[in-house]
Design brief:
The protein is mainly β. Helices cover 12% and strands 46% of the residues.
Amino acid sequence: MKLFSIIIFIIFSIGSIAAQVGGYGTYKFLSLAPTARMTAMGDHVISIKDEDIGMAIENPALLNEEMIKGISISHKFLFSGISSGYASYGFKIGKLNMPFHAGLQYVSYGESDMTDEYGDKFGKISGSEYAFVLGSSYRVYDKLTVGLNTKFIYSNLANYTSTGLSIDIAAMYYIPYKMITAGFVIKNLGGQLSAYSDTQEFATVNVMFGISKRLEHLPFRLSITATHLNRWNLLYDNPDGENNILILGESQDRSKFSEFSDNLFRHINFAGEFMLGKNGGPFRLRFGYNYKKSREMTVSTYRSFAGFSFGFGIRIKKIRFDYAY
């Protein structure tokens, strides 16, 4: 009960920090799904305990002995020449009974034309951002592990540069006989050391809580993650949103329940993973549903699978290949 009270206090404290005037923070590339596995499972999964070193950037408390000497390399091709990726390595330091990981998260925004107010081109501009990550975990007792990530950030957008520092504070609670794992993360707590201009900004804080359950008689694991717990209202004015006009031309306001449920589900991410085969499942099928992404990317006149994600993983001996779409 005392631990629960501390967590609630931290969430509301972070909420006051994150609600700065003029926006919701900088270094938004830190919110991108760093690996193909997480992309396939809806971007945010913080409660899967296994040997995947790529999970540690999302929740450093997931770091364990199985990840030592593990290597993860991911790259994503986005639109308009934009790409992002992540690379990490797990290791130990001396006789310390703590696993560590080091990694690099990056995004390249490609090149764009530089123009004047008349549209005349006179050069190219480009942009990229990097986060150098170092993290570790510590097992408090058999079921509870805590973790910390430290990130040094460098951002170069056209002729503007910025450096920053942020941390992720995390915990993981594991109940082996029920095959349940719970994770809690305060992500991107920090801000700019040097700003693009005279105004310094905080990083985009994201407080998350997630639970994963592996079924007893089916090779399937379900994960549910609640995100942005430090910021309740995720709604925004969408001019392409649903048309609430009645037949006679009057406008119809959304009900309070409709607005509440819409906002509530924007905080929740659903994910599933089938583990097929022996020894932990060398072949895996994954899917996810991100309601927030669905609402923000759906065009009212066009049907699509916005918000849904799919992928698979294949393990051959000690090498695993993951793909997401």
